[in-house]
Amino acid sequence: MGRGFGALLRKDFKLMLSGKFFLLAAGSLLVYSFYINMVYVRLNQEIYPVIVYDPLELQNKGQQPPAIMVESQEELQEKCADAYAVGIDLSAGMTVKDAKIYMVSSGIEQLDALRSAYAQLYYQQNIFQTDTGTVSYDSTNIVGDFTKEAKNRREITCEVLFFELTAVGFLGLAAVLFREKQMGVLRVHGIIPVSCAAFLCSKLLLFFISDLLFAVVLTMVNIGVIEGMIVLPTVLLQAGMLSLIMALLGFLLAVCLPNFRQFSLLYLVLAVFITTPVFLVGQTGISWGWIIYHPMYQLFITMKKAYFGERGAGLGYYCVCVAVIAGLFLLGIWALRREVAKSGGTNNS
User: N or C, which end of the chain has less CB nearby within 10 Å?
Assistant: First the structure.
């Protein structure tokens, strides 16, 4: 049994090499890390661009907030015409009552409410009256226990890892299995003394290890070695569960579907209709009451909490995850035995 499993590991490893899986993973890691370190953290990380019209020059010239200053109300309206930026008109004075917030509706009520709340929060935090009547600006940019850059690094790293494990994890193992089906491996497997469980476990083990290595390197490179070591235990726990769930789901569908074209349609459904709502809620603040029942949302939120060192989900969450993994594993073995029998094999072990 040990020799048979070792042979399966070597075979699957060679298939992953020939399929350029490790090369693609390394390339993705380089591209993601380059974007995070060279582009993302250097962008103006304000949620919405803030346009300020201050004709009375009430602000202290040396302490202006990182906003776009304009010379007229017409220019303010022009820069806010994209239905994304928010404007603050200080022409009537500096008090909260006098200041006016200007913005063009985006057509989404929840998003407009978020933009309005952001503009008010920005005004209260960054532009305020001191006892002497001058304007001061709080430039520390501390968000909770993290600096603004550290918070942004953790958020984008979490999102990249979640996307990679969800999309690529679902696709990777399935692609290897479809290649084996074309090569007639399932027909051969039916007459060799290796169980279907070993056939599945060899693939699952390789993809599981590669996903964990990807998570370790991505985390270390983009949030730092020391910070990464602190959060890695809980991050790897979440990454491991997500990796197993998506790989097993991809394997099950790849066994049941006759060709890669049908599988790719399901992959599109996963990417667009299942994961997109999770990112919309996580990034835009759109409030959907039903999202708490979305299984991918729970996985995403728990991984995000892991990156910020927050207390994760309770025991019930982990029991459900283990039950899902076990259920998908058993379904995968059942479907594989069924496919082997249809291919002309007789291996029911």
Answer: N
- CA dist 81 to 67, 227, 243, 340, Å? 16, 41, 43, 61
Q: What pLDDT is stored for residue 212 in this prediction? A: 95
- Which tokens belong to 132? 């002497």
Q: CA 266, 268, 274: angle at the middle one, nearest 5?
A: 85
Least Cα distance to 58 among 89, 20, 90 occurs for 90
The residue among 139, 171, 196 that closes a domain is: 139
Query: Would the pLDDT of 117 be above 60?
Result: yes
The three-state secondary structure class of 38 is: helix
The parent domain of residue 62 ranges over: 50-139
92: number of Cβ within 10 Å: 12
Residue 24 counted as domain residue = yes
Secondary structure element (H or E) that encloses residue 62, with its range: none
Higher pLDDT among residues 305 and 134, named by residue: 305
Same domain, 213 and 232: yes
CA-wise closest residue to 65 among 75, 50, 48: 50
Whether 217 is in a domain gets the answer: yes
Q: Which of 139, 168, 201 is the last residue of a domain?
A: 139
Is residue 237 packed enough to be buried (19+ CB in 10 Å), middle (13-18) or exposed (0-12)?
middle
Identify the pLDDT of residue 268. 81
Confidence of residue 98 (pLDDT cuts 50, 70, 90): low
Q: Is residue 287 one of the residues assigned to a domain? A: yes
